[in-house]
Amino acid sequence: MQKLFAGDETRDKFCFCTKEDTRHFSPNKKRMNIEEKINRSETRIFKAVFPNTTNHYDTLFGGTAMHMMDEVAFITATRFSRQVMVTVSSDRIDFKKPIPAGTIVELVGRVIHIGNTSLKVGVEIYIEQMYAEGRELAVHGDFTFVAIDEHKKPVSITK
């Protein structure tokens, strides 16, 4: 294993980055395991559903929901890998309940599968009434991302 700094024997057992990455290195931090990385990359975003995002039924446009989900999935994938990620597919999106105007939605993104160059993020949208307790699952979808290099070629995901 390459030492990060000459003569510093204590850093030897923590080395998991290149010399260029050492500016972000903390010798007191151990490398996170996969489950810790998944938990730390979980992304939650809240939004209000305003009339300008709704259709003639006064519910959120499906395309707007998909846009918000892809954005949360991208943030989740990037937070997990800390690499350049691109969306390659939205595998399945299930609209379980309409999302009415005047509600609050919570989007939750979580890594659900890790491959060699790709990973899959599950995203759920929950509805909350503004002036009442409780929430309901409205939409669920899975999005696949690939890590790419500066030439836009797939690269291995840093685990």
3D architecture notes:
The protein has 2 helices and 5 strands. With 159 residues, the chain is α+β, with helices and mostly antiparallel strands. It is elongated, with a radius of gyration of 20 Å. α1 packs across α2.
Concise summary:
The chain has helices at about 35-40, 60-80; strands at about 45-50, 85-95, 105-115, 120-130, 135-145. The chain has about 160 residues and is α+β, with helices and mostly antiparallel strands. A hairpin with a 6-residue loop joins strand 4 and strand 5 (about 135-145).
Name the descriptors.
single chain, 159 residues, alpha+beta, five-stranded antiparallel beta sheet, 5 strands, disordered N terminus
Task: Lay out the secondary structure.
Layout: H1 34-41, E1 43-48, H2 62-81, E2 85-95, E3 103-114, E4 118-129, E5 136-147
Antiparallel strand pairs: 1-3, 2-5, 3-4, 4-5
Helix pairs in contact: 1-2
Shape: elongated
Structural class call reads: alpha+beta
Number of strands: 5
Write the element-wise H/E pattern from the N-terminal end onward.
HEHEEEE
How much helix, percentage-wise, in residues?
10-25%
Output the radius of gyration: 20 Å
- Arrangement of strands in the largest sheet: 1-3-4-5-2
- CA-CA gap between termini: 17 Å
Biggest sheet, in brief?
A: 5 strands, antiparallel
Q: Look at the structure and give the mean pLDDT.
A: 86
What percent strand? Answer: 25-35%
Alpha plus pi helix count: 2
Unreliable stretches, pLDDT < 50, 5 or more residues? Answer: 1-28
